[in-house]
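User: I'm curious whether this sequence folds into something compact or stays loose and floppy. Could you predict its structure so I can see for myself?
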Amino acid sequence: MLHEPRALRTPESEPPLFADVIVPRHFAGPFTYLVPAFLRPILRVGHLVFVPFGRSLVHGAVIALTPEQPSAVLLGRLKAIRALVSEGAAVDVSPALLELAKSVAECYVAPWGQALRLLLPPKATAADRGRIILTKEGEDVLAAKGATSSEILQLLTRLKRRPLGIAVSRLALKASGQEDALPSILERGWAHKVRGCKTHRTEGAGQPPALRELFEFREGGAPEPLGTPTHVQEWQLRVGHALERRQSNRLMVQAGSAERLMLLRFAAARTVKLGRKVLVITGETARAESLAAALNAPAHPTAVLHSAMPDHKRSQVWNRITETQVPVVVGTRAAIFFPLHPIGMIWIDREEDPALKEPMEPRYHAREVAWMRAQEERALLVVGSSHLSLEASSLDPPDDVLKAPLQPDAWPQIDVVDLRHEDRRMLLSSRLQEAMRDVLGRQAGVLLFLNRKAYAGALACRDCGHVPRCASCAVAFAFSRQKQVLACHYCGGTQRIPEICSGCGSARLQPVGEGTERVEEEVKRRFPSARVLRVDGETLRRPKEADGIWSRVRRRDWDVLVGTQVLLREGVLPTLGLAGAVQADAGLSVPDFRAAERTFHLLWDAANLVQPMGAGGRLIIQTCLPGHYVIEAVAKRDEAMFRSEEISHRIALGFPPAVRLIVLHVSGAQESTVERASHHWGTALHRAANAALTSGALTMLGPVRSPIPRIRGRHRRQILIKSRPGFHNVQQMIRSTLTELEAAYPRRTVRFDVDVDPIEMW
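Assistant: Here's the prediction. I'll summarize afterward.
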């Protein structure tokens, strides 16, 4: 609610007071507002306020108060702050969090206003998540200019530009004078409203089941931990000493889920006993819920907060956090900005998870921001995973990495099948089929994984080679034989399977490549009595179907599981008798410098899911590259071999952690404009680099077409910048050129995006 203003004008006897306010929009600097008389006694830096912005009221945060009038602004043109935000307990932002937002904006070359939105409390009421999509009738009306008002025409034009529709919450109808147009076009059938769905992979349907219980429960519900290994006891002493020092420090833990949870529970209890708070960050909402349940205890109640929760519930939890009612908070990446104080420990779980990187501006990485905040709070940062990424673990001395000892007796037998010597028409090699028969006979469970969904990656004409492509994204359609459609994995567009080739008229259209759908059909054909369950992005698309699939996984209502890497997450599956990598090379051929590391992690996780060799467990890796160092390292159970080889490759080729990467994206509807703007940016960057005398510190590649040159109808170009790790002026150089570019090209025409430390390279 708003405080009722008692006076909107400052009395003539008092000099005016001015406030600099940051608003959560794409603006780097603050806006100046007058402070009304009724707020002068109470307004302070950090307060959240409502301010007029265009035709609407928006949240903002006060970052400065001064009696000095801005020289470039006339007093009569300044607007006044309308009111303080007084809804809920969160009415201000601490100076430390404001400074953190500013540091994030500077590090990730984003406007301070965009970083501010990460600090704002959630809305107490649920927003309308529906989307408005233009119908064929609406397109006809727009083409014929048959609407009766300019507002309706403007709204139809906006919808025409967005084939996937516009979220109701983003329409801003009042600000554009179109508040009466929407009901009118919906009633006439010129547009229709569809239920909104969360598109991010960690927030929608398809979440894996919660962690398997890592603790035995005695009668009465009190958790009793399983036996604590000696090395975990040593880690507990190390973490306890670090917490007692109350200084910023960073430790890394490479261990299985059970050992990490033991250490986390100990560290959380010790931190609370020392009178400080605990913040736990993970990439997945399901993982956050599970960790919160495992950490909750009478001595330290635990709260969980993530974006998949209803808005009103998020608001309640947020208020409990700001009122210091909970000492332990678990959440997804945005939790790093929670108003928790004083923090004694920040724990990042599964630090290599891509979901820890924000895909939208300001594109921060929660792991890196956690270290910023730990230094400010003089807190301990613990970064944990079953397999630490090279980029994270290379930053710390070996003594700061707590690594669980490898247990060779716990590993399965690992066989490598050279597909070059196998029948290319067979998807499952004879050795894999023989192993499947053995494991199915003793009902031990089989997992076949391939990180590529659908039936095939594309459909190609055998006569002319033509491949049907998405008109919006210019990428090959994936072929689904069960659904009888061609689908684009980037925009979600679909198309009926053509009967003849549009290039030459031939009817000889053939699937190219393998997907999980094809593996499923092959298993059913060769093992007709086996219960086969497929788990991938297609089968998990709808929430109700996803719940049913995960229920079957938990009940072991299957003999053979076929799926993507979603099945290799910790705690999802019971111990198996056999795991098979149907095509291990699929991940190695991805144009991404992390491809080898990700493939190694997948195969390593698969090995950890299988029974020990003594119990008959086997991992079979099918590959055309048996001599690749990733395959050899897994087969020899030698992680050090992989790390040494991979680091040498990255140093030679100039990739992280040897250098720091920044990708600059230019996109727009007109290809010629995008190309001109990208060259303009490249020229400006070279000019700025020469002026800054950065010889040897920077390498700039491009502009070139992006690996996927068009997505959702927008053409794309990119520039890749490699900088020396110790060189800190590159962000300022990019920001100065970005200001020049955004002034030259309207944002609706061309969009300029900066991705510091990118996770996705396409």
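Summary: The first helix runs from residue 95 to 107. The CA atoms of residues 324 and 340 lie 7 Å apart.
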